[in-house]
Amino acid sequence: MIADDHTLVRESLVNLLQAEGTIEVVAQAADGPETVALASATHPDVVVADLSMPGLNGIEVVRRLREAVPATRVLVLTMHQEEEYVLQAVRAGAAGYLVKDSAASELLTAVSSLHAGRSHFGPQAAKAMAEQMRHPERALEDPYGRLTAREREVFHLIVEGLTTKEIARKLEISAKTAENHRTRVLDKLDVRNTAELVRYALRKGLLD
């Protein structure tokens, strides 16, 4: 399964993988929620997913796929090669990580490796993971990872600009419950208001 919000990229990946002859692309998704829904319905062996998609951050997509379809292995294919993105993806449950300037042959190798139950990390991701092992004292604090699934939903809706009432309507909960979730999100991330929350999301690469 391919998940990328750019149609040209998505269709190019589909053509590349299917041309290999042994890979069948069972679904395509253009945003985060669609990725989770289609993967839950089709149970693909491997999902090739971008990190920057509308509707739901890629890290959260990886985390939800691990919960919803644990047998499905996720290969992150992204423009981001910074250590922080790699580590967040691995912590969320990604089994592979490649940047988009990788060779087509490496993508095919990565998909085959994940299908066979192995992991595959490109040179940039492997370097980031090695640096983390050499300097564990620099372990990046991940308060976002301490949010519950519902709090992460509220987090992203706040970042998208929804008010508490709008969040309550979208999640079909009371305004009081939505406000409680909002308060806990701010407390756990140690930010004071929406502006600081958006800056936190930008700094951590959590914007869609």
Automatic annotation (TrEMBL):
Keyword terms of this UniProt record: DNA-binding, Phosphoprotein, Transcription, Transcription regulation
Pfam family, any one: GerE
Residues covered by the HTH luxR-type domain: 140-205
Top-level taxonomic group: Bacteria
4-aspartylphosphate modifications at: D50
Residue ranges of coiled coil: none
Annotated signal peptide: none
Domain Response regulatory intervals: 1-115
DNA-binding in keyword set: yes
Protein's UniProt keywords contain Transcription: yes
Name of the protein in its database record: Response regulator transcription factor
